[in-house]
Amino acid sequence: MPWFGLGVWKSESGEETENAIKYALDAGYVHIDTASLYKNEESVGKAVNGYGIPRKEVFVTTKLWNSDQGYDSTFKALETSLDKMQMDYVDLYLIHWPKGELSVETWKAMEEINEKGLAKAIGVSNFMVNQLEEFLPHCKIVPAVNQVEYHPYLTLTDLREYCQKQGIQLEAWSPIMQGEVTKVPELIEIGEKYGKSPVQVTLRWDLQNSVVTIPKSVKQHRIADNGNIFDFELSEEDMAKINGLNRDHRFGPDPLNFDF
Asked: What is the CATH number of the domain that holds 147?
């Protein structure tokens, strides 16, 4: 799984998503993250399949929406996603949100999907520690990934450490706080030291915390800039400073209290 990729949440289906993916692939990205909820899987498939590189060279993730959770409906949902993307498999298939016992039934189907090669890896999204503790005893296959909201104002130290112990790769959505990292004085100051933007500093912080990151953008220059994070390394002091910015603040829904 590539450490860095492009998220397409809220990217409009059609030209906007297709162009964003082209810009990303042009910039060297090989990891694209979508979901059935985003309503742009067709555009993801069209862009990836039409770019001119072998399918196996691009890591594609999609996610199962809550209304499709359950044993039988999971198979149908993935079939629909694959049809939309015109792909034989996805590299990673995630349960989008935790739904208790229903997710246990869903996971049985996910494990079969994995065994059949329709998803090269399977995982979850938005699972907190207590939800993983309830879920994992029912798993024959440990989730490969847990994709969660993760950024300097929500560092989730307990979850990150728990996932590391369980062999689950943590992945960050909304890593740049919907652009708000550009207003954080500490990130601005650290960026000036390295000749980098607050966004680049934040994405580099993800990687040095061993967290996969998938910032979303549809603008060509931002997509290129976001990927320009492999030519510097944050000092331990600066890593600690960013770790200390935590406010337990969410920009998205709370996985322990949502109603969809």
From this structure: 3.20.20.100
Asked, for residue 243, whether it belongs to a domain, the answer is: no
0.85 exceeded by pTM:
yes
170-204 pLDDT, tens digit each: 999 999 999 999 999 999 999 999 999 999 999 99
Share the mean pLDDT of the chain. 98
Domain count, the chain: 1
Catalytic machinery residues: 38
Domain that holds residue 61: 6-179+210-217
DSSP-assigned states of every residue in the chain: --SB-EE-TTPPTTHHHHHHHHHHHHTT--EEE--GGGT-HHHHHHHHHHSSS-GGGSEEEEEE-GGG-SHHHHHHHHHHHHHHHT-S-BSEEEE-S--THHHHHHHHHHHHHHHTTSBSSEEEES--HHHHHHHGGG-SS--SEEEEE-BTTB--HHHHHHHHHHT-EEEEESTTGGGGGGG-HHHHHHHHHHT--HHHHHHHHHHHTT-EE--B---HHHHHHHT--SS----HHHHHHHHTT-----SS-BTTB---
